[in-house]
Amino acid sequence: MMDIKEIHKLLPHRYPFLLVDRILEIVPGNKAVGIKNVTSNEEFFQGHFPGNPIMPGVLMVEAMAQVAGLLAFRSGATIGKSVYFMSIERAKFRKPVIPGDQLKFEVTILQQRGNVWKFSGNASVEDKVAAEAEFTAMVTDKEI
């Protein structure tokens, strides 16, 4: 549905903070599914348990939020704006993610009022949930 070139057009994030490689599906106003291929070359593995690399859970939540931002842009948010985190709720980390894993993110819109959006998301590896959370974001001008 969306490759990295299209993602670059919509999200301001770049390496090492762009955490979505591809969008497989977007149902505007409803849900999005994205992919992140986790490799041993990721910057965060150098300092997050060297010798036993595990992807930080907060980065999985950030990746879910990036998928949510892409969903918001395809669901009526004005392109050229920015999507900023407002809150993270009910975050749970269920399974370690290691180099070689492919993370699949599924994000659903729970509510949208004006420029405030609430999402539910999960990150899974081989259909086993690695992380889940609800989060709220605001779509606003690029400069606050």
Overview of this protein structure:
With 144 residues, the protein is α+β, with helices and mostly antiparallel strands. The chain has a single domain (4-140), classed as Hotdog Thioesterase (Thiol Ester Dehydrase, Chain A). It has 2 helices and 6 strands. The chain has helices spanning 4-10, 57-74, and strands spanning 22-27, 31-37, 82-93, 102-113, 116-125, 128-140. It has a 6-stranded antiparallel beta sheet, covered by helices on one side. The longest helix is centred in the middle third of the chain and has 18 residues, at 57-74. The radius of gyration is 14 Å and the shape is globular. It starts with a helix and ends with a strand. 27% of the residues are buried. The model has no long low-confidence stretch (mean pLDDT 94).
What is the mean predicted local confidence, pLDDT?
94
Share of residues in strands = 35-45%
Query: Largest beta sheet, briefly?
Result: 6 strands, antiparallel
CATH architecture: Roll
How far apart are the termini?
A: 31 Å
**Arrangement of strands in the largest sheet:** 1-2-4-5-6-3
Number of helices: 2
The low-pLDDT segments are none
Can you tell me the CATH class? Answer: Alpha Beta
Shape: globular
Would you list the SSEs in sequence order as H and E?
Answer: HEEHEEEE
What is the fold named in CATH at topology level? Answer: Thiol Ester Dehydrase, Chain A
Radius of gyration: 14 Å
CATH superfamily: Hotdog Thioesterase
What's the total count of β strands?
6
Q: Please give the domain count.
A: 1
| Oligomeric state | single chain
